[in-house]
Amino acid sequence: MFEWMIALQSLGVLLLVAVLTWLLSLVKRDVSIVDSVWSLFFLAAVFTYGLAPPPNGTRSLWVFMLVGFWAIRLCAYLTWRNWRQPEDRRYQEIRRRNEPHFEIKSLPYIFLSQAVLAWLISLQTLPALKSSQPLGILDYLGITVFLFSLGFETLADWQMARFKSRPENQGQVMDRGLWRYSRHPNYFGEFCLWWGFYLIALSAGAPIWIIVSPLLISLLLLKVSGVPLLEKDIQERRPAYRAYRLRTNAFFPAPPKSLDKTCESSP
Q1: What is the DSSP letter of 53?
Q2: What integer pLDDT is reported at residue 259 of this predicted model?
Q3: Buried b / exposed e across 57-78, counting CB within 10 Å, b at 16+?
Q4: Which helix (H) or strand (E) holds 102?
Q5: What are the domain boundaries of the chain?
Q6: Residues 196-240: pLDDT tens digits?
Q7: Residue 196's closest CA among 149, 164, 243?
Q8: What's the pTM value of the predicted model, to 2 decimals?
Q9: pLDDT per residue over 7-23, tens digit each?
Q10: Average pLDDT over residues 22-38
Q11: Which is nearest to 142 in space by CA: 120, 155, 158, 127?
Q12: Is 127 in contact with 210 (CB distance < 8 Å)?
């Protein structure tokens, strides 16, 4: 049976974190700080689930470690990347579209909505934390997928950070390393990571509807706030991105396409 009371307690905690982050954004006049807090929503959810009875089983140790590594790594990276930078361009555009009184609107539009999304995605970790069933093949498969995905995402972020740190690359398109095979390898890693968690949840006996959690993060990355929003911003600023877009898959890694073949197949 799914522990809905524990889940609702977690939702309350996440909404509180969202409100506190919103208040900080008013002081900084920068709502993009929500990006750094995104992974902390999940960490707060897992701790809320873990502290509630019944006692946690062996599987919960893996869940705590996996979520903790991912959340702290992503929060630290995004905080470092955005340190002393102006508000992210995407949020500047949202701010312009929602004036006047964007400061008030940003609470439900950005902070509370992200807290609710994080809560929905995190629900798959609750059965894994509270299950007393022994670890099985799906657990080990899920842990393997998660660790591979975390490494993939971390490597992609490191390669991009190193590329941007070199002055000669200013205004250029990153098409090396993992970025040669996918335009968004960091998002691909994030996508796989939550499907790894889904396997752990299945092994723990999670209800069938829990598939909504990985499907939701997949939808966000592929169709809503991930690839589409970032692609629009980059194409407007970097004309060279068009050629990169033609030869490189948007999401799932694959060998680069030949531009000659791409042009021949275009109408």
Answers
A1: S
A2: 62
A3: bebbebbbebbeebbeebbebb
A4: helix 102-106
A5: 4-253
A6: 999 999 999 999 999 999 999 999 999 988 788 788 778 777 778
A7: 149
A8: 0.90
A9: 999 999 999 999 999 99
A10: 95
A11: 127
A12: yes
CB 182 within 8 A of CB 221: no
> What are the tokens at 97?
């579209």
Q: pLDDT digits over 54-111, tens only?
A: 777 889 999 999 999 999 999 999 999 999 899 988 899 899 999 999 999 999 999 9
**Tokens representing residue 214 in the block:** 């990985």
- Given a contact cutoff of 8 angstroms between Cβ atoms, the answer to whether 118 and 40 are in contact is no
The amino acid present at 21, given as its one-letter code, is T
Q: Is the peptide bond before 54 cis (omega within 30 degrees of 0)?
A: yes
Residues 6+ apart with CB under 8 A from 239: none
Task: Quote the tokens at residue 178.
Answer: 């993992």
Q: Residue type at 186?
A: N
Cα–Cα dist 157/177, whole Å: 11
Q: How far apart are CA 81 and CA 125, in angstroms?
A: 28
